[in-house]
Amino acid sequence: MSYTNILSETKNGLTTITINRPKKLNALNKETIQELHDAFKAANTDSETKVIIITGSGEKAFVAGADISEFADFDEYNGGKLAAKGQDLLFNYIENLDTPVIAAVNGFALGGGLELAMACHFRIASDNAKMGLPEVSLGVIPGYGGTQRLPQLVGKGRAMEMVMTAGMIDANQALEYGLVNHVTTEEELMPLAEKIAGKIMRNSTVAIKGAIRAINSNFKDGINGYDVEIEEFGNCFGTDDFKEGTTAFLEKRKANFPGK
User: Fold this and answer.
1) 151 and 28 in a common domain
2) Per the structure, how many domains does the chain have?
3) Catalytic site includes residue 48
4) Which residue out of 135, 161, 188, 229 is catalytically annotated?
5) Is the C or the N end of the chain the one with fewer CB within 10 Å?
6) Is residue 258 in a domain?
7) pLDDT the model gives residue 221
8) Burial state string for 181-205 with b = 16 or more CB within 10 A and e = fewer than 16
9) Range of the domain at 144
């Protein structure tokens, strides 16, 4: 599949999706959001893909925000529709994807860019990364899940401060806050992401899918995460991966998971 605004490459079980609008600092417009959805959907249904990494092209930005020119003249109805469609098509879609998604944050991750990174299962950052939700400086609030995911990751007080000041934090502060898992140099960002992906790929894809569902369920209203964990734990016992994993452990050898 060919794209206008992104690149997607699959190699050795890893799909790397790169937002490729460097002249626009990889800003998200409608077309890019649709292409990202299509690329994530294709990777998730590809039996060869075990892990997905998303990053931005160039040295300046992961994603510097949304393309403001597309919605500057919207009214209340169209503004709400924009947020609902974006969340459904991309941000919530990524969060609930079966395949693990790592955000490799290079440079600026602002507004929709930080919201995109937060929708991923976890994040690593280069030491030149800057992150923030500056929407209130434009007279609007984050609309792609930022007011919900940021408090989950950094706590209510820090999220309130970041949103209300519209300020940026650097990579080390993001690490301290728990917003990112690792900080490394710009040159080592993708190698580190690939190294972590390699560790993930050694494990059962079926079990990882269940773990993603169980962990996410704790953050959903009206759902008991413990009940989901019990259900997913039980489901594992009916899989070929469980049989292989336990057999390999008892035979003191490395497991070769079939992914079923």
Assistant:
1) yes
2) 2
3) no
4) 135
5) N
6) no
7) 86
8) eebbeeeebbebbbebbeebbebbb
9) 6-201
Among 163, 184, 201, residue at a domain's last position: 201
Q: Are residues 131 and 218 in the same domain?
A: no
Share of the chain above pLDDT 70, in %: 100
Q: Which is catalytic among the residues 115, 176, 186, 244?
A: 115
Examine the domain organization and report whether 45 and 160 are in the same domain: yes
Smallest CA-to-CA distance from 92 within 258, 216, 239 is with 216
Residue 105's CATH number: 3.90.226.10
Instruction: Determine if the pTM surpasses 0.70.
Output: yes
SS (H, E, C) 17-86: EEECCHHHCCCECHHHHHHHHHHHHHHHHCCCCCEEEEEECCCCEEECCECHHHCCCCCHHHHHHHHHHH
Report CA dihedral (161, 165, 166, 171) to the nearest 10 degrees.
-50
Distance of alpha carbon 57 from alpha carbon 185, whole angstroms: 16
Q: How far apart are CA 223 and CA 205, in angstroms?
A: 24
Domain-terminating residue out of 201, 217, 235: 201
Domain match, 220 and 114 both? no
In a domain, 260, yes or no: no
Q: Would you call 115 a catalytic residue per the annotation?
A: yes
**CA 194, 195, 200, 202 torsion-angle sign:** positive
Instruction: Give residue 146's pLDDT band: very low, low, confident or very high (50, 70, 90).
Output: very high
Query: Is residue 178 pLDDT above 80, yes or no?
Result: yes
